[in-house]
Design goal:
Elements lengths: L6 E3 H12 L7 H14 L3 E3 L13 E7 L4 E7 L10 E3 L3 H6 L7 E6 L2 E12 L6 H4 L1
Parallel strand pairs: 1-2, 4-5
Antiparallel strand pairs: 3-4, 3-7, 6-7
Helix pairs in contact: 1-2
């Protein structure tokens, strides 16, 4: 990990903690495990003000390109659950893929459990779109 721990923007951290508190209610076992793993990683996360966020860190509304060691790659935008749209490559933070990459940065390697089994992913590209969510609506 480039920065040693996950890096999370302060307001996004609050939203993530609220979403994580619901994890016990998720019926899908893989999703519940992913959310619990992310919740555990948040305990040691580096929390930053928005003005101090690194450009290469994955956060809400970041476009991410990942590659697996098995050879596949995917580009998607990480979004809030209400904005999820698989057809348009918008992946919710409350999916195993979304939970796997949140707070990591370009160049990091992530080992995560998916419905198909454990996968090793490399974050190839991180693009910020300056379109971060209005968290006041969520808070």
């Amino acid at each position: 990990m480039k920065y040693g721990n996950l890096v999370i923007e302060k307001k996004e951290y609050v939203v993530l903690k609220r979403l994580m508190n619901l994890s016990g209610y998720y019926k899908d076992d893989t999703l519940r495990k992913s959310v619990k793993k992310l919740a555990g990683e948040l305990e040691t996360a580096i929390i930053c003000d928005a003005s101090h966020m690194y450009d290469d860190v994955i956060r809400f509304n970041t476009t991410v390109t990942i590659a697996s060691v098995s050879g596949w790659h995917k580009t998607f935008k990480l979004v809030m659950p209400t904005d999820s749209d698989i057809k348009n490559n918008k992946i919710s933070i409350l999916t195993p893929m979304g939970a796997a990459v949140m707070g990591y940065c370009e160049g990091d390697t992530v080992l995560w459990e998916f419905p198909s089994g454990e996968q090793k992913l490399t974050i190839k590209k991180v693009e910020q779109e300056n379109e971060h969510i209005n968290l006041n609506m969520v808070l």
